[in-house]
Amino acid sequence: MNDKASRTGKIYITIVFFLLYIPIVYLILYSFSKGTTMTNFQGFSLKHYGELFNDKRMLAIFLNTILIALLSSVCSTIIGTMGALAVHNAKRRHERETLLSLNSILLVSPDVIIGASFLIFFTALKLPLGFWSVLLSHIAFEIPIVLLLVLPRLDEMSPSMTNAAMDLGASPAQILSKIVLPYIQPGIIAGFFMTITYSLDDFAVTFFVTGNGFTTLSVEIYSRARQGISLEINALAGIMFIFSLILVGVYYWIETRNTASTGKKPIVEVTDR
């Protein structure tokens, strides 16, 4: 019975992955076509990649998107980690539940509502729409993601670790830097990479807060798609897919290295230095 269930599960997973990856493979395959449409493959060519690299506007938008993703991820990871520490250290139960509820509201709210809210907020503050409005919006909707990934690691940490450090005379700063942060590091790293993917993927919120000639790839692709899909977009999709694979590879490399390091050094030493 277990073997049959296991076989059924493997078949189901295979079908799911097939349905997920076939459109991506199909998209990337036609980026190497000599033709101009996705109706039929007309032979291998790199001309669409050449067109992409000669498109200065698209390259500038690509760099803008990467810059926004990196800056927003760094800022949201720092703020989200601080928020997780604040929620974890909340002394009253209803205070913790209130903070978590407010955090969850941002996660379940439709992106259209969040985007419209940011637009109204920035307009009320008379903040010009552009780089800073997009950056601030991305930081805001990424913070709850980091908090939810870091908080479980904090809840798993035994209080005896910090209590022992206090008994040994460690300062709060030493406890944070030598015990708490190393312990929750996997959650912080996961939050950082997750926010990068959310930033690269976001369309609805960014669509509301772009302006003054500043835009990101998702908004630009949407604008061009309304005029007719060019195979240059396929070439861009291929590059973004490779970039995503690199991010996943880096994440797993860091996780593997941290796991090996933790296995070799299970004891965290606290000194007065």
Structural summary, described in words:
By secondary structure, the chain is mainly α. It is 78% helix and 0% strand. It has 11 helices and no strands. α1 (2-29) crosses α11, α3 packs antiparallel against α8 (172-201) and α4 crosses α6 (131-156). The longest helix is centred in the C-terminal third of the chain and has 34 residues, at 231-264. It is globular, with a radius of gyration of 23 Å. The chain starts with a helix and ends in a 9-residue tail after the last helix. Mean pLDDT is 83; it is low at 264-273.
Key features?
disordered C terminus, mainly alpha, 78% helix, 273 residues, single chain, globular, 11 helices
- Rg result: 23 Å
Tell me the series of helices and strands, N- to C-terminal: HHHHHHHHHHH
User: In DSSP terms, counting alpha (H) and pi (I) runs of 4 or more, how many helices?
Assistant: 11
Structural class estimated from helices and strands: mainly alpha
Q: DSSP strand (E) fraction?
A: under 5%
Unreliable segments (pLDDT under 50, ≥5 consecutive)? 264-273
Mean residue pLDDT: 83
Distance between the termini: 60 Å
Helix content: over 70%
Report on the biggest sheet.
Answer: none
Number of strands: 0
Overall spatial form: globular
Structure in a nutshell:
The chain is mainly α and 273 residues long.
How do the helices and strands line up, and which of them pair or pack?
Elements: H1 2-29, H2 47-54, H3 56-88, H4 93-108, H5 111-124, H6 131-156, H7 159-167, H8 172-201, H9 204-209, H10 217-225, H11 231-264
